[in-house]
Structure formats: structure tokens, C-alpha cells
Amino acid sequence: MRTALLQSSGRPGSVVGNLKVLDEAAGRAAAGGAGLLVAPEMFLTGYAIGDDIGRLAEAADGDSADAVADIAGRHGIAIAYGYPERAGETVFNSAQLISADGIRLADYRKTHLFGCFERDHFTPGEQPVVQAELGGLRIGIMICYDVEFPENVRAHALAGTDLLVVPTAQMHPFQFVAESMIPVRAFENQMYVAYVNRVGREGEFEFVGLSTLVGPDGVARTRAGRHEELVLADVDPALLAASREANPYLNDRRPGLYGSLV
Fold it and tell me: Is 116 a residue of the active site?
């Protein structure tokens, strides 16, 4: 399945503006043969928007979700995107996957919040593994800091995730995560990882870009630079199966030795 990574900070504070950016990117991605478009963390509203996070937060099935479903349906492409999710009085840093026919497939709430900014504005989620079937693949979802915890990604591997999509707001000086950690996560867990970042300065943060799709062999199939761009690469089930046979980490585990981890 060809996968498109939208590296962009969109239009911080403007849901309407970000939906337009997403619509245009979905059209380009679909024209390039992609079956899935992944946008960054908090793409719908912007990340560094302070108290506007609470004001702009919506339910998972709210008006903006309907708008994304319309975009997905018109272009015939599945879309994963980050947004602030409101559930009653609680706000989560969430990511949602919508199918090419506009059906909501999965909604994930970030389980590991990074820094005071996130802890001041969000409540952490409690479900570490959220998956959906798409195009013959099992898609898993995480958000940014979550992927830096090896236990999180291993839980996805044990649950059969083939492609882990990670909407991200990775900032300076932590670019080594995109450059070094993501290839290791993909290899040690024998899965594809799509790590899709914001880019440029936003408030007090400088996002580093470097979005990438890495295969189970630890090799980047595509990598963006430090500016806004749309990059595409293929997720190959045959390579995934061959790589898992050649690198049987999951079969060779000895869980009885790992009790001290928890």
C-alpha cells in the first residue's frame, strides 16, 4: 500500500485552513497512487495554540471528523490525522483513522504526554494498542512521544501491527529520534513505521521535519527534509513477511525473564 506522509504545520489556529491543506494533500497523494495519507500530531488545529486547544477540541465524531471523512471519500484515500479530542470536560491529544469511504476506523488517545505544555492541556489516554484493518494490513496508531517507549511499540508488534502510523510534533534538539530511533523501532519489532512530523517554528517550538517511512529492515523508504512537503513510499506485505522470517525476534523472546520490566 502506497503511503503518503504530509509534513506540514498547516495553519495553526485555523481548522478551516488546515482542512483545506489536508484536502489539497489528499488530492496529490491519491494522484500519486497512495491509499493512505498520514498528517502530523494536532494537525487539525495546530500544536502551540495554548488555551485555544480546549476551545477548538471536538468529539471524535464531530464536524471536523465529518469534514475529513468527506475529503477521504472524494479523493478515495484513507486519512490519519492528529487533533484535540473532547470527551465531556476532558481533552485528549488524539489521532483518528478514517477509511477511503469515509468510515471512522480507529481513534487513539496519546498515552505518554511530553513536557509541561502537554500535561497542562491534555489528559493521557489509557489504551496503548489501537488498530484497524486497512488494505490487507493491520494499522496501529501512536502519537510522537509514545513511540520512544520500547514497551509501547513491542505491544503493537505482539498484537500483529504491520504498519505503525505515528503523527508527530518532534522538536529541536530531538531530531535523533527521527534519524536513529525510528529505524531501530521498525527493525526490532519487524514492522513498518510511518513517522510524520510538523515542521518550522510554532510558538516556542521549532519542529524539525525529517518525516520518514521505515521498513522492517530498518531502511528508510522515504525521508522528508526540513520544509513542508508530501513524500510517498510503499508498504510491501511480501517484504514484511520475508523480513519477519529472517529476523524472528518475536519468536525468540523469553517473556519469563522480563518480569522486572514491570
Answer: no
